[in-house]
Amino acid sequence: GCQFLRAHLPALKKTKAIDLVIANGENSADGNGITPDSARYLLDSGVDVITTGNHSFRRRESYDLYDSCEVLLRPANYPAAAPGRGLCVVDMGRVQVGVINLMGTAFMESLRCPFETLDSLLKTPGLPKVVVVDFHAEATGEKRALGFYADGRVTALFGTHTHVPTADGCLLPHHTGYLTDAGMTGPIDSVLGVKPEIIIGKLKTKMPARFDWAKGPCKMDCVLFTAEERTGLCTGVERFSITLTAAAGKYIIESEEPFFLVFVYGKERCFMEKMRTHPSKKKAILLAAGCLVLAAAVAAVWLFNRPQPGKLYHFQPGEVTQVYLQHYADMRDVTDPAQVEEIVDLLNGFTYHSAEDIPPASGWDYRVGLSTNTWAYDFTFTADSLRIWNRDGSSTIYSGPAGYLQPLVDMADGAIPVASGTISQPEGYPYHIELEDVTQLYVTDLAETKEITNQEDIQQVVELLNNFPYQSIEEDTYVPTDWWSFSLNGPNGAFFGGYFTTDSVRLSGNIYHGPEDYFQPVMDIMEAAPSLPEHTPEVSSPSALDSASPTP
Question: pTM of the predicted model, to two decimals?
Answer without folding.
Answer: 0.49
